[in-house]
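worker-03 picked up job from queue 'complexes'. Input manifest follows; two sequence lines, order preserved.
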Amino acid sequence: MKRDVRIARTCAVEAVKDFHFREYAPFAWILGAHILFLILALNLEAAPAMASVGGLCRMIFGRESVHYPGFYLYLPSLAAIFEAFLYSIPGAVLIPLALIRTMAPMEPASLRNQPVGPRLRSAFLPTMVVSVLNVGLLAGWQWVYQKGPGPLLARSIPGFPGDAVGWIVGVLGAYAIAAIFIYVPIVAVRPGTGFVEAIRDGIGEGIRLFWYTMTFIVVYALPVLPVLLIVQSRPAFIVDRMRPEIIPLALIVYAVLISAATYLTYAASARLHWVADRLEHS
Amino acid sequence: MSRRVVGWLAGMMLALLVSGCGDAALRSSRYKAERLLWLAERAESKANLGAGDPDSATLLQVRQAYLRVPREVAIPPASAVPDSSEKLRRDIARTVVTAQLQVARVAVLAGLPDTAIHDLSRVAAMAGTDTLLLRQADFHRVAVYRQFRRTDEAIALLREMMRRYEPKPPVEGREDAMLAIPDGIVQMLRQQGDEEGARRATDEASDYFQGLLQRSYPPTLEAQIRGRLIRVELERGDWENGMRNLEELKRLAESTPELASLKPELLYSEAKLVAMREGNRSTRAISMLDHFVQDYPTSSFAPRAIFESGALLEGHGRKREAVEKYKLVGDRYPNEKEIAPLALFRRAMLEEQLGDWDLSKNLLESIPLRYPESQAAIQAPIAVARRYYRVGNREAGKAALKRAIGTFEELISRDSTATYGPFYRWAILQCNVTLEDRSAALKTVDEMAKVNKGHPFTAQALLEGARIANLNKNPERARAYLRQFLADYPKSPVADKVRSDLRQLGSPVNKS
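worker-03 finished. Artifact:
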């Protein structure tokens, strides 16, 4: 057990120390799109921004959602939907690409020299399916949590601390769901892995390495949490008492941090998966 | 295959990007206008959060913040916008006009009435054919004129509005403000002490409502116009037309279910008309008014009905019963600022007649404290002094007049709207004249000339001041008052007499 913890810690540290932009680059594409979206949200006075982000907002939340400053109350939810889209659809190509680049030094030369295209094509579907499933389960978890345990927990401690505790438990639940699916793209990029095998092995690995993966997610996401807590739990306070534009600016900070945290979580999990694989074979 | 997929994805993205592009420019303009208005409102809140009221420099900064909206957001012309986007265009226009109205409001706060009027006149150009916005701007202009006591201009504009705008049907039962304009003019003239002008304005109001009834309106609006007309006719004592319109209104109410709520007003008006027809002999009107109060105790006409019943009883010489009615008004409707002070004053008068001077005096002295902004508050202290003079107790009368002066000075310091200031000062002047305290009287005249310039009572005060100065053998001061009178009231019917007085005092008169 002690050895396993040591290995996991080494994987986490190594993921940070051995950072290469080429490996992170696919996440940077997602980050670029995410930031572009938030910059457009910050500039709805421009017709292209109103046509794109404003149009999306009207489509989802109705025509009254694109007024100032009320729009900023909808923005955290709108940005969360867009983020889910980015990490599920373009992410189904870009995340496996980043994983192929991250895992390349760990793979034997025979695997490393295989063309990337077919590996991406076979990884796309399982990655997208589990991403969409993840989003669906996340929405289900949020719904169930909001119906009972969340408000109960928030009410048991008065004021902002109660809200914060309720929010943190909700986020930990969401991270636990993500931890189960994180190994699916890692397994899926292995040449010759089929759809069912990728899902089955990936979820199996997620369950086996659950606590380590969960630790990776929480540790890397620590800098993100305060930003997300304020934006998601007090949007009305920011809009009414401060400046509404703080919300997109905080969401830009969040986008940068979550991009780095997601990359590092995948990089550390890929390393842990490689070590677990070696140990199993030895 | 992959190229087709990429092409399809690119097409989808483009479609998403340009979805709603048709009115995106209008939406973004509206958003910008809302943002700039929000920023200006925030700047004003910040300015108001400081210690004390913001100074004029801060207010001008706030005004600049509001001005950014009309400067940076152009209202698109109606012809350039398709019908489907008309609502968006109107939203933009309303936000920009709201900002422009705020610009004017802040100018008022900064003490710049002419700038405010100029700001409001710009609204007409912005509003185009949007009558609602134009009316809103005009009502703001009236408010500005009134705040700066430019009553003549306010009344002129209100008359112009009566010609320019059609009244609108009620929204959720609320009457259109246009219908309140004629009564507003009458009230403004009364506050000015111009009873003759108020009487003429009542005649105009009658003509206005009768003119409106020549056209066809929805029943709810027609009922409101008739209701207003009946009230005007009651005030003019025009029994024939009042009764005729009441019958019309009854017929309309019977055929229109939405007008069921008019019943209390109809019953009250009928009782009033009966009282008017039969005069003080009417016991039928008393009975009708009493039944009305019994059936509709929460109606806004109920306090007035009790008071009217009391007045009729007083006419019958049934003083004790009348006292009970006036007492009932005070007990049930103490917050009715128009009727409650009148009822209290009448009750005090009757208590004195019934022999209880102590109670009468207590009631009279309580009126300025309970209802400072009322005509009764002005009459009550003087009524106490008059009673002492009447019973031959001059010393007590003088003491009461001095107390009355103290009361009026206290009321001036508490006069939140500055509406009653000229009345209080005029009452002080009357007290000083009765007390033969000429120097105090002249001091009051000087104060009125300075603070209540243009008010009809100030005109009378200047003439009174000239008379007192002559008694003091001070022709220079008398000339100064008369010259001031001619400068401030050149169209006064006594202007020629004043010019002749000035000549007699040896002063050259400029006829222009």
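worker-03 released lock.
Chain A has a mean pLDDT of 87.
Chain A touches chain B at residues 44-52, 54-56, 58-59, 66-69, 71 (CB under 8 Å).
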